[in-house]
Amino acid sequence: MPLLYPMSRLPVPRFFVKIKIHHKENSVNKKAWIIFASVCVVLIAGLVYMSNKNRIDVSKVDLNAIHKADDASGQIGDHVYGKTDSKVMLIEYGDFQCPACGSAHPTVKKLTEKYKDQIAFVFRNFPLTNIHPNARAASAAVEAAGLQGKYWEMHNFLYENQNAWSSLSSDERTDYFVVSAKQLGLNADTLQSDMASESINQKINFDRALGTKADVSATPTFFVNGKKVAEDVRTNEDKFDDLLKEEMKRQGIKVPKE
After folding, report:
1. Count of domains in the chain?
2. pLDDT at 258
3. Which of 15, 102, 153, 203 could disulfide-link 162, Cβ–Cβ 3.0 to 4.6 Å?
4. Same domain as 210, residue 159
5. In terms of domains, do 84 and 17 share one?
6. In degrees rounded to 5, what are phi and psi of residue 115?
């Protein structure tokens, strides 16, 4: 029986067409998934790299010793008020926008002034930026003032005027810090430039890393010779005073008369 159609022109059964199309779609989808997976791998690898790049290794740093300037801390060392070689060291991990830190400041200032010839006081930045949006900028302003030799002046000024800048916008807070710098006799342009510097950013990150290593989770957190100060002590001036005197006696330091 003669063929009705030449072999090359025979109609292709419909199910063969469907199979071919379906196979092509699967191939396209497979390629799309491969591309998507590759992009995800690259993104994850990039995030891991950036995370490791910004991570500061403080595993070998002694939390209870005064840290000198080095690359890890942006070439900015610990700020110390009082007797730098004292056997009694009071360390605060604080947040300049933190209301509790602001409330603690008068007591801390009074006691560190009272015992400035007997103890060393170190302040380390621990800005809680998730709840205090202006805290890190305040730390940067204080660190920048420190580069001009007036760390403690700016430190005290911002705590004592906390309500004036805590709720300001990012632009307003910068203006406030600049005006404050001028009042303290600082070069305002230099301060503003230094606030955005990598060295100060590194210093703040370094302080935070030390706080994390010390299991700091709230501010203010105080340590006296490595021992965490209980909340009921740090919120009571007399108890805080007694704690410092007891540690001085333990270390053989003569306590000044009242």
Report:
1. 2
2. 80
3. 102
4. yes
5. no
6. -115, 30
Distance CA 225, CA 243 (A): 11
* Chain segment 109-160, per-residue pLDDT in tens: 999 999 999 999 999 999 999 999 999 999 999 999 999 999 999 999 999 9
Between helix 135-147 and helix 188-195 the angle, nearest 10°, is: 130
Measured CA distances, 60 to 57, 101, 142 (Å): 8, 28, 27
Length of the chain: 258
Q: How far apart are CA 22 and CA 195, in angstroms?
A: 61
CB 64 within 8 A of CB 91: yes
CA–CA distances in Å: residue 12 to residues 15, 21, 207: 8, 13, 74
Tell me: the pLDDT tens digits for 91-122? 999 999 999 999 999 999 999 999 999 999 99
Structural domain including 23 reads 13-55
Q: Please check whether residues 81 and 50 belong to one and the same domain.
A: no
Residues 25, 123 within the same domain: no
The reply to whether 1 falls in a domain is no
Give residue 39's pLDDT: 61
- Among the listed residues 256, 255, 69, 97, the one whose alpha carbon sits nearest the alpha carbon of residue 176: 97
Task: Give a yes or no: residue 173 inside a domain.
Answer: yes
Q: Does some domain include residue 61?
A: no
Give the DSSP letter string of 14-56.
Answer: HHHHHHHHHHHHHHHHHHHHHHHHHHHHHHHHHHHHHHHHH--
Compute how many other C-beta atoms are within 10 angstroms of the C-beta atom of residue 80.
19
Structure token digits, residue 60: 């070998």
Q: Show the beta-strand stretches assigned E in 95-224.
A: 120-125, 221-224
